[in-house]
Fold:
Amino acid sequence: MKWADLSRKRMHDGANAIGNLMVEGFHYLGLFAIGAATAWASVVAFLGMVDKGHASIDDILLLFIYLELGAMVGIYFKTNHLPIRFLLYIAITALTRYLIGDVSHHRAPDIGLVYLCGGIFLLSLSVLAVRFASHRFPSSKAIDSTGEYVGDNLMDNH
Structure:
């Protein structure tokens, strides 16, 4: 029965190799598609600013959102981990952009302004909490899909 076990192991290893290839291929295809769409959208937004002949603060904040999205894709590509801080930064920038757009259109201040400022404040506290937690309780080394360690291990420094 040793031949059956060896055959089963070879079949299992072959299926794992093909499955890993397909999953990683889809993973990279998705990352490149998201990165390309982000780059394309940022170029279109920039060309729109050039066409207008000026850039408003809304336009500049939109470019910051695209920059954060691109950085997030790059970090995810390198480490296979999605940094939650980048999502929080994007949300803060998006709310700030909305707030500035709302105020610049000379709308009368109402409770919505307080909600927006409260949302920005809560997101800022979330960034602080995530930064504190990641410093106080560092994670172990990140492992990519091949089993290799990626990035720095903060626990080795203590």
Notes: The first strand starts at residue 142 and ends at 143. The beta strands are 142-143, 149-150.
